[in-house]
Design goal:
The relative contact order is 0.17. By secondary structure, the chain is α+β, with helices and mostly antiparallel strands. The strands form three sheets. Strands 2-10-9-6 form a four-stranded mixed beta sheet, with no helix packed on it. The chain is rod-shaped.
Length: about 120
C-alpha cells in the first residue's frame, strides 16, 4: 500500500512539473516575438526615416543589429537603422539580429519640383 501511494505521488509530481513547463514555455515564446517597425515604406528622394526592431514592446539596441541594403544608390541605411532615400527605385533593407533577418521593402519616388506661381500669367 505504501508503494502505491509513493508511486502515485511521483506520477502526480511529474504531471504537475510537465504542465508547469508547458504553460510557461508558451508564455515566454509569445513575449519574445521580434518585429521590424515597418515591412513596406514609400519615401521621396531626400527623405529620411528610421526603422526600429522590437522584441515584444522593447526596442532592441542598434548595437545588436546589423543593417544592410540591397541598393545603396536608392536607399542607404546607417548603423542605427536610419534610411536615406537617394534616388528613385526600390531597395530592401535588412536588419539582422542573431541568426535571423527581418526585411523592409523601400520604394523611393522622385521628388516633384514646386512650381513658381502656377496660376499667375505674365502680361508680357
Amino acid at each position: 500500500m505504501k508503494h502505491c501511494k509513493r508511486g502515485t505521488r511521483i506520477v502526480l509530481m511529474m504531471l504537475v512539473l510537465i504542465f508547469t513547463l508547458c504553460t510557461t514555455a508558451g508564455v515566454s515564446a509569445q513575449a519574445a516575438k521580434i518585429k521590424l517597425s515597418k515591412k513596406k515604406l514609400t519615401l521621396t528622394v531626400g527623405e529620411k526615416r528610421t526603422l526600429v526592431l522590437k522584441k515584444g514592446s522593447k526596442k532592441i539596441k542598434p548595437k545588436q543589429i546589423k543593417w544592410t541594403t540591397t541598393n545603396k544608390n536608392v536607399a542607404a541605411v546607417n548603423k542605427k537603422g536610419k534610411i536615406t532615400a537617394k534616388a528613385a527605385g526600390k531597395a530592401v533593407i535588412f536588419a539582422q539580429y542573431g541568426k535571423k533577418k527581418y526585411k523592409c521593402t523601400v520604394t523611393v519616388k522622385r521628388s516633384v519640383p514646386a512650381r513658381e506661381n502656377p496660376g499667375k500669367v505674365d502680361p508680357g
